[in-house]
Amino acid sequence: MSVLLSRQFTWSYIRKGMDVRDLQGYALLPVPVELVPRVAAMIQELGQHDMVVAGWDNTTLGAGTSWTETELRALADQMSYRGVLVLMDMCAETPSSWVLKADAEGRAGVSAIQLRNELGAFSKTVRRLFGDASWPMEVRKQAGQFYYRMSDEVAAAWAAVREEASR
User: Fold this and answer.
1) Total Cβ atoms within 10 A of residue 44
2) Which residue, of 2, 100, 155, 160, has the greatest Cβ tally within 10 A?
3) Other CB atoms closer than 10 Å to residue 92's CB: what's the count?
4) What angle do CA 154, 160, 161 make, to 5 degrees?
5) Phi/psi zone of residue 49: left (φ > 0), alpha (ψ -120 to 50 degrees), beta?
6) CA count, 13 A, side-chain hemisphere, 113
7) pTM of this prediction?
């Protein structure tokens, strides 16, 4: 389940396959703007929900989900996006540490717009392969910059897949 909090003070609970117009069993509550990040953090902590807080900086825009080495191998086999591959490799090099998108652009030799477009195509590839657009990395926006990271487990699996592919 994912939760979207917006500046219009509504909570929209969206589950995979759920018609978002059908909110039976869910609450739409007014939340003062200054409390939205705290409420989002509390919901995420209590319910283990992936969280998107639209319009707020310094918030996590989705938690990287658990991925198996088999899934990552299938994903890598379908990827031709140099910028995304470099970004994922950088995340795997420093597990659980945030990687600045601009640093990945520089290492990959692609523009910010190019990497943004590749990340959009990456989402489509993930959805096509696995029926869900959850990435194997977490995204955070802070002070107008995007940062990415992988869990230790996903980073180790990704590094193994990339090592295997380079042989």
Assistant:
1) 17
2) 155
3) 24
4) 90
5) beta
6) 0
7) 0.64
Report d(CA 136, CA 76) in Å as an integer. Answer: 12
Q: Which amino acid is at 65?
A: T
- Residues 98-143: tens digit of each pLDDT: 999 999 999 999 999 999 999 999 999 998 998 877 889 999 888 8
Q: What is the DSSP string of 130-155?
A: HSS---SSEEEEETTEEEEE--HHHH
Cα–Cα distance measured from residue 158 to residue 165, given in angstroms and rounded to the nearest whole number:
11
Whether 136 contacts 158, CB under 8 Å: yes
Q: Which amino acid is at 155?
A: A
- Residue 161 burial class via C-beta count within 10 angstroms: exposed 0-12, middle 13-18, buried 19 and up: buried
| CB burial of residue 39 (10 Å; 0-12, 13-18, 19+) | middle
Q: Name which of 74, 73, 145 is nearest 115 in CA terms.
A: 145
